[in-house]
Design brief:
The complex is a heterodimer of chains A (227) and B (434).
Chain A lengths: L2 H6 L1 H22 L17 H11 L8 H24 L1 H11 L8 H24 L1 H6 L2 H20 L4 H6 L6 H17 L7 H17 L6
Helix pairs in contact in A: 2-10, 3-11, 4-6, 6-8, 8-10
Chain B lengths: L18 H15 L2 H8 L6 H5 L1 H6 L11 H10 L4 H6 L8 H13 L6 H5 L6 H14 L5 H13 L9 H12 L12 E3 L11 H13 L3 E2 L10 H5 L2 H17 L4 E4 L3 H9 L1 H5 L6 E4 H11 L10 E5 L11 H10 L3 E2 L25 H18 L3 E4 L2 H14 L5 E3 H7 L4
Parallel strand pairs in B: 1-2, 1-3, 3-4, 5-6, 5-7, 7-8
The chains are: A mainly alpha (227), B alpha/beta (434).
Chain lengths: 227, 434
């Protein structure tokens, strides 16, 4: 079995299994913990619980204007990274072809130029985030190994993906064989590494943020406070 | 060592537990706190550090150790080692270090001296993490370990003995009689039955006794049957701040049980932020069911009386600015009520730069006002608040929490600032019309 076959076969299956089962285990392990019902009477006019939770999820999308500059920089950088990564992952034609092979779903691709810009923006935002984490005293105080491992594991698929890009995606897709099997296998393996790490580190915030914000929304909307 | 001033010990210890016993007690308590919301909030932190930008102690000192989420470090470690979904793996591989006695001792300053549990950090957190609540839960473990500031421990012992940090219950009739004589008002005490049970804050039983007379003046005006009562009179609830859950429950039950015994349908809380947090939102937890009485803050009560026309107030017609007490506004939902009362008093309200739910804490909440180790930090926060208050150009400065008021008064004395901090209750009582 060559490296690409390994990456497209058993490594993909194992990493997807770890990702799905690990994430479910993680979510269940948190969400099934004991809960204490709030027996206090709600503030008159408090919204329904689900609405309070939903509003908190929505409000968390952008910092309050009162926090202005303090929150703006890291928020914008975060959006640049997340949007850039989403565009590359879901919009690049070879990625869509890969997803179609795995689960049978596909959708129209975005132009290659958009992909290159999105990947570039994601890399720049990740470098800015790393610089900030290494140089900002507050981040220095609170950072741990998870932050560094996660940063490396997230940037690797983008870098290895960029390394594979040597020609337009239409040309790549028109061929029935891979001309750079080892670089492509490495790219796939870095993605699989990310999938395997996902349930164990801070990447879980991709699922948890909804519940975390929602829980605070529940607590505070009950009191008549919009958070 | 975390303490910024090496001359001041960063931690105190109570009782004679061994270090091992302290750690085990703290860990047992921490683990008992890890319900679903706590777990979600500990899990979802991405360590972005934005919470620092919302914390008055970080903003005024620039010291990274005051980053709110950093204050939770031993609590966080306990979670990941003992309760997280991958805890066995974390322990087996030694991925997270178990908090030791040195960690707990060092973090005492961050958990007690430099967190007022004001919750401003929650509003900036992109994950919506309620750090104030987590700090409160961490304090439960610190209390069990006998690791809280001595001043707070002393107040705790007093409250366990007296039911109040200010005075034993048996002295209440004398205090009320004296306040009544001084301000020319009748303050009923220990009635066998009443519709309303009125409670006090510790400070009102000592230096701010006019507040007792002010409440009496208003209640007597509306002609309801009300009383204060030795059985449950101090609503400040030092157990809530210290992390002493047993005391918190005892003090809470004293209020509710007394109200039930005398047939009261309403318990009025004093102008005290943490009293509101402890009684309005947490009393039912200790009671084990929905409360048989309504619990209402003095500000809400005044707002309702004015709105219903049961009292009328004279219009003062000056400019004023208002400090929003964190537990009453940001964590309590009474932002509009205080402003309606100020409007009824005819004040032209000039808001602080940071006000309402995003207003900065006075710097003394969560027991910090009573903790002499935190004096320097409190003064730094006061400087910021003073600047914001002066920048409004308002003639009067008002708040609706006695603890905030004391914190401002202490800060003003230190800064030789002559602007008085006025109480909303006092303003209403002094300006009752007709």
């Amino acid at each position: 079995m060559d490296l690409l076959t390994f990456a497209r076969g058993p490594a993909l299956v194992v990493s997807l299994a770890v990702f799905v089962l690990g994430s479910l285990w993680h979510l269940a392990g948190v969400l099934l913990r004991p809960r204490m019902p709030d027996l206090s009477p709600a503030r008159q006019g408090a919204p329904e619980k689900w609405l309070g939770a939903l509003r908190a999820v929505k409000h968390g999308l952008w910092p309050r204007k009162e926090f202005g500059q303090a929150a703006l920089g890291s928020t914008i950088n975060g959006y640049v990274f997340h949007i850039g990564l989403a565009l590359v992952f879901f919009g690049y034609a070879p990625h869509i072809a890969f997803i179609r092979r795995v689960i049978g779903l596909s959708w129209p691709a975005l132009p290659d130029l958009v992909m290159y810009l999105a990947a570039g923006a994601s890399i720049v935002s990740l470098l800015l985030a790393l610089g900030s984490r290494l140089l900002n005293p507050v981040l220095g105080k609170i950072s741990n190994l998870d932050d560094i491992i996660t940063w490396a594991i997230v940037i690797l698929p983008i870098l290895t993906g960029m390394a594979v890009v040597a020609e337009p995606s239409a040309a790549v897709l028109s061929r029935d064989r891979v001309i750079y099997p080892v670089p492509l296998a490495i790219h796939l393996l870095t993605l699989e590494l990310l999938l395997i790490w996902f349930p164990f580190g801070k990447l879980m915030h991709a699922f948890l943020f909804v519940f975390s914000r929602g829980a605070t929304g529940l607590r505070f909307s009950h009191r008549g406070v919009e958070v | 060592m975390i303490a910024s001033d090496p001359a001041i010990p960063a931690f105190d210890k109570q009782d004679g537990q061994s270090d091992e016993a302290r750690v085990e007690a703290a860990m047992r308590s921490f683990v008992s706190e890890f319900g679903v919301t706590t777990a979600l909030h500990l899990e979802s932190c991405v360590r972005c550090g934005l919470c620092a930008e919302a914390c008055h102690f970080y903003v005024t000192t620039g010291d990274a150790k005051y980053t709110p989420v950093y204050k939770l470090e031993p609590f966080r470690r306990a979670y990941f080692r003992e309760a997280s979904p991958f805890a066995p793996l974390v322990r087996a591989l030694g991925l997270v270090k178990k908090p030791g006695i040195v960690d707990l001792e060092q973090w005492q300053e961050l958990i007690y001296d430099s967190c007022t549990m004001c919750g401003r950090c929650t509003l900036i957190c992109p994950m919506g993490i309620d750090i104030a609540e987590l700090v409160k839960e961490a304090r439960h473990g610190m209390f069990k370990a006998g690791l809280l500031p001595d001043r707070l421990a002393l107040m705790d012992r007093t409250a366990r003995q007296w039911g109040s940090t200010a005075t034993p219950g048996e002295d209440l009739p004398d205090i009320l009689a004296e306040a009544g004589r001084s301000y020319g008002v009748d303050i009923p005490c220990d009635l066998d039955s009443a519709d309303i049970l009125v409670t006090a804050a510790s400070a009102e039983l000592s230096e701010h006794t006019k507040a007792l007379a002010d409440a009496a003046k208003i209640l007597n005006r509306i002609g309801v049957k009300w009383t204060m009562h030795q059985g449950g009179f101090d609503a400040s609830n030092i157990g809530f701040n210290n992390g002493d859950m047993e005391l918190q429950e005892r003090l809470t039950r004293a209020l509710i049980d007394t109200a039930v015994r005398i047939g009261a349908k309403t318990v009025i809380l004093p102008e005290c932020g943490h009293a509101y947090g402890a009684a309005r939102w947490e009393a039912a937890k200790w009671y084990g069911q929905a409360l048989p009485v309504r619990i209402i803050h003095m500000t809400e009560f005044l707002d309702e009386l004015i709105a219903s026309g049961r009292i009328r107030v004279n219009r003062i017609g000056e400019t004023a600015t208002f400090h929003d007490p964190c537990q009453i506004v940001r964590r309590g939902g009474l932002e509009a009520a205080a402003r309606r009362v100020l409007a009824a008093l005819g004040f032209e309200l000039i808001e602080l730069k940071d006000h309402g739910v995003t207003g900065y804490c006075c710097g003394g909440g969560g027991g910090v006002v009573s903790n002499q180790r935190a004096t320097t930090l409190r003064h730094k926060v006061f400087e910021m608040k003073q600047q914001q208050i002066e920048a409004t150009g308002a003639k009067r400065f008002v708040t609706s929490c006695g603890q905030c008021r004391i914190t401002f008064e202490m800060g003003a004395r230190h800064a030789h600032w002559d602007k008085p901090t006025e109480s909303l209750l006092e303003l209403v009582a002094d300006n009752l019309a007709g």
